[in-house]
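not sure who needs this but someone in the group chat was asking about Helicase from Seminavis robusta so here u go. i didnt clean anything up, its just raw.
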Amino acid sequence: MSRPQGDEAWDAMLEELKEFQEKKGHCRVPATNGKLGNWVSAQRKWYKKGKLNEERFQKPQGLGFTWVVYDYSGPLGGDWLAMFANLKKFQEDNGHCRVPGADGKLGAWVFTQRKRHKQGKLTKERFQKLQEMGFTWDVHASFDPLGEDWLAMFANLKKFQEENGHSRVPRAHEKLGSWVCFQRKLYNQGKLNKARFQKLQELGFTWVLRDSSDPLGEDWLAMFANLKKFQEGNGHSRVSTGDGKLGNWVSTQRKSFNQGKLTKEISEARRAWFHLGCTCLV
């Protein structure tokens, strides 16, 4: 039976598909998505011809791979998903989905989605995906900068601050970390709405992060989060020096403390550690 690529190259593409699936929640890679889009199309072609071996069928199958895709008019066809990806990027860059009608192909596509929705012709699948990203169906409606979704994330940030004593959420902190980074990005670009800026400012939000060498920078806080997780899982914070990166980090904190080299900020942070029952510096 013919094999379209070498095993290593095929496995590498499968990993890319897996990453795409984890990020997007599906395996319907747009045909325009470069090398991965071409590879996915090739797998479907071999499957349709009955020339795909069992192993190469089962592995994508385990990811929920879609073997038969809709055409352009289908609910989530490749062309539609490609434009949806462009809209998502626009939202990430601008903080909203209100694409100007003059914005070329994307503007025309967005206008068509609204028109079909108004006419009751937009499929349930397409409506759901647009709805989940906070798509603006009525462009004439007033924009609420403090909408339900934004306020929900703000409430999560407020809870994080109450539990940790600061609002410097590590990037690795799942959805909240990404949201916080996005607020900073909009602020730096001068695109953050005044009402949102004001609420974050009142919370004592940190607009400019210091570099990774700062004792309370993003990297330090990420390791602190790992230590907190270790403490919750083990009932103590005496991390062994042989416990990889976390063990080395704890050893460094202890050494700096014993040498009297901890900054005032670190000393203040230690209070939160002992509040958690942390004994790593003693």
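also The longest helix spans residues 7-24. if thats useful
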